[in-house]
Structure to design on (222 residues):
């Protein structure tokens, strides 16, 4: 599904370059469930943002579903992200002016779904995550855990080919976290969704087929 070769990313500082990613090489096949681990500052979220085409890089090549991402125009990269990738953010990124139902529905609007299709899909996923009673509330009226559930529901509503999840259970209680991991396992095993999650939790990482460890922007174990 995707392959990155010699990906390096840095930021310039007064003392020179600070490397966020160093010579990353990685291939992920369709249908894999991959967990990325490492201490804070090791480059996990940066790598996820690069894979999700939310962030660029300074050296290297990135191939996604046959497309040479590094050679594409910004508009084409945006189309790939919108059409094939679901992203669960650690910081939620919900729209405060929209209700829970409207936040979840938003990706379907971008894809041109009919109103009846949108309503049915939203109702189904609200039920799946047991947040039907929250559908008319605004993000500021929700707890952190509830906002995280809404963010996960929004990422999954388009049934993406690739799901990228940055600490998806970080703001959930243990019961909610286990339920989300069961949902991920079902999506992966039964629906063939490719999943890459960043996590500090060894328990959550073990749900994956493969664990990649980062340290100081480098892959030290795969």
């Amino acid at each position: 599904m995707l392959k990155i070769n010699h990906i390096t990313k840095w930021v310039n500082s007064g003392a020179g370059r600070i490397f966020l990613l160093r010579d990353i090489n990685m291939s992920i096949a369709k249908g894999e469930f991959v967990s990325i681990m490492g201490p804070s500052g090791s480059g996990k979220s940066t790598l996820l943002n690069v894979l999700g085409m939310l962030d660029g890089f300074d050296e290297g090549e990135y191939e996604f579903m046959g497309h040479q991402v590094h050679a594409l125009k910004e508009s084409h990269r945006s189309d790939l992200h919108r059409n094939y990738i679901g992203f669960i953010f650690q910081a939620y990124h919900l729209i405060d002016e929209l209700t829970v139902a409207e936040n979840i529905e938003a990706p379907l609007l971008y894809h041109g779904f009919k109103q009846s299709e949108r309503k049915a899909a939203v109702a189904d996923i609200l039920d799946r995550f047991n947040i039907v009673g929250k559908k008319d509330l605004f993000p500021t009226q929700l707890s952190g855990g509830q906002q995280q559930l809404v963010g996960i529901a929004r990422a999954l509503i388009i049934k993406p080919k690739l799901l990228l999840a940055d600490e998806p259970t970080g703001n959930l209680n243990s019961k909610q976290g286990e339920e989300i991991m069961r949902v991920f396992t079902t999506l992966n095993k039964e629906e063939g969704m490719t999943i890459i999650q960043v996590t500090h939790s060894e328990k959550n990482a073990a749900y994956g087929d493969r664990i990649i460890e980062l340290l100081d922007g480098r892959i030290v174990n795969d």
Observations:
- The mean pLDDT is 93.
- The first helix runs from residue 44 to 51.
